[in-house]
Amino acid sequence: MENDGAAQEKLFDARAALLLAALLGGNVALALGPWFVREADTGPVSAAFWRLFLALPFLMVFARMAGQRLGGMPRKTLVLVAIGACAFAMDLASWHVGIGMTRLGNATLFGNAGSIILLFWGFIIARMLPRGLEWLAIACALGGAGILLGRSLEISTETFVGDLFCLTAGVLYAVYLLTLQGERARFGSWSLLVWVSVFACPVLLTLALALGEPVLPTNWTPILILFVTSQLIGQGLLVYSLGHFPPLVIGLALLTQPAVGALVGYSVFGEVLTPLDIGGMVLLGSALVVARATTRKAGPGMVQKRG
């Protein structure tokens, strides 16, 4: 009996360690994405198109392996998916443009601001004022964003505009989550990602062509690494692990993304952070953690797709 108990405890510990490794690994994989967005010799919106288009067959396989149906969606659901996919496409486009203009640490933090937007949206829907830690999240968000935006404006107007593009991406991502939060439970995360990609790819391709971007890469390596790390490894590990952790742990794990982004920005692109920059990042990162811990609007399956 004791041996059975010990074996079960070891199995549980091994599974818990595997889930935690998947959670952290998924966030690290997503955080590497902006590096390869910059390295791609296509336009930034074209890179967003390729990361979704190349991943589409694999997402279909994942959906089938998970037993999630790909057909039979009612017209109302398809309309909601189309609206959500447009928001998702514009989110990716805005974020990819911002990545090329601002520092990677800033891009990752502002791009993940959807959690804070959802917190504010919850106040509006409930028609109530924040309480307790929610006030702390608001104060940290405003303080951190103010510091980072101010520092970007000191560097250059382009860097400041890049921050605004990434912040816009965070707002659009919140719109995407809110639009599809009810459908995820009905059809599953992988199935929904397939349909979102089906609708989002034409939007991104049309936008890239309208902007006059080069669409076909001459060097496929950055594009292939981007789609593998972000859409397959990052998304896959998070879909596998998110449902097993409370929101606070998920929020804390999310902080690995701006940390890795800042490290890549420093080591690869020479982006140096001052103590004031670090202070602003800590404040905004704290707001993300508190917001993620106090709102459950998105649900575990609507993964953070940054990268």
Chart the SSEs and their pairings.
Blueprint: H1 2-31, H2 33-39, H3 44-65, H4 75-99, H5 104-111, H6 114-126, H7 133-155, H8 157-187, H9 189-210, H10 221-241, H11 247-254, H12 256-269, H13 275-294
Helix pairs in contact: 1-10, 1-12, 2-10, 3-4, 3-9, 3-10, 4-8, 4-9, 5-8, 5-12, 6-8, 6-13, 7-8, 7-13, 8-9, 11-13
* Number of DSSP E strands: 0
Hey, roughly how much beta strand do the residues contain? under 5%
What is the H-and-E element order? HHHHHHHHHHHHH
Q: Helical proportion?
A: over 70%
Estimate the global geometry from the Cα principal axes: globular
Q: What's the Cα radius of gyration? A: 19 Å
Poorly predicted runs of 5 or more residues = 296-304
Q: What is the number of helical segments per DSSP (H or I, 4+ residues)?
A: 13
What does this structure look like?
This protein is mostly helical and 307 residues long. 79% of the residues lie in helices and 0% in strands. It is built from 13 helices and no strands. The chain has helices at 2-31, 33-39, 44-65, 75-99, 104-111, 114-126, 133-155, 157-187, 189-210, 221-241, 247-254, 256-269, 275-294. The radius of gyration is 19 Å and the shape is globular.
Question: Summarize this, please?
Answer:
With 307 residues, the chain is mainly α.
Descriptive key words:
307 residues, mainly alpha, 13 helices, 0% strand, globular
